[in-house]
């Protein structure tokens, strides 16, 4: 009887131990999904951190000055109260905010020992960056359509590009950006992150996060790919078709001066489209085994593009240059 009782006690403690161990494993698993991440950033010597910090700081200051300045010029000059500049003002707003999602955290990590970002912070950064980046793609498509109407149907421009349509196009851009971001974020952060917590990037992006997951990524990658096609294909088609019609119309203009003037209204937009889509394609065509190259490509469209956009439009656009000159003269007169 004593042996039987001892055996029962042993079995009971073994079972209890197994239950406690299982609970601990579940807690560890849950903790791995909600704990902080570490943003590795650029793999360079510590001595170069100051140089990189100063470069990031300079670029971010130029982004702030350029995009805030562009919005101020558009809002204060009544001559720029047109559909083209309405879209450009929203483009500057988007550039300002999606770079602000990335740059401050990246700069602070140059001086941080832990380089950590909370799970909630990573989710928020991923969501906002995806939202503004997708919104920018749709805004650029709307701007291409605007240039198509302005050059191919100039007499009907004010009728077709009404204030209501422009507002709907901008609102639609934000709506599709939000829907896309919700889908991408929910798919990415429902993965199980049971590997290392170290994200080999300077912000929370989809490919570095996928590398940390031990979930089956086939379905997630297929859905992400299909979603990317649904997001990018319509915007690219609108831009390409618009410019096909624009080029066809401009080539029919007999005077060289007329052609030059028509092309000059599109050159800034075409430059911005080339920089953004070139960087995005380079980023996603870069092999996953070369993360440092992916970081450089990400740097181009997350910080360099928002810095270049206001410069491209201010240097290539006569109306913006005149409005800026007028604003500076007014400021000097007040001083």
Automatic annotation (TrEMBL):
Signal peptide: none annotated. The keyword Cell membrane applies. Residues 66-313 form the G-protein coupled receptors family 1 profile domain. It is found in: Cell membrane. InterPro entries: GPCR_Rhodpsn, GPCR_Rhodpsn_7TM, Olfact_rcpt, Olfactory_GPCR. Keywords: Cell membrane, G-protein coupled receptor, Membrane, Olfaction, Receptor, Sensory transduction, Transducer, Transmembrane, Transmembrane helix. It is a multi-pass membrane protein. Coiled coil: none annotated. One of its GO terms (molecular function) is olfactory receptor activity. PROSITE patterns: G_PROTEIN_RECEP_F1_1 (PS00237), G_PROTEIN_RECEP_F1_2 (PS50262). The gene is LOC101976715. Belongs to the G-protein coupled receptor 1 family. This is Olfactory receptor. GO terms for cellular component: plasma membrane. The keyword Transmembrane applies. It comes from the Eukaryota. The chain crosses the membrane at residues 50-73, 85-103, 123-145, 165-184, 225-251, 263-284, 296-315.
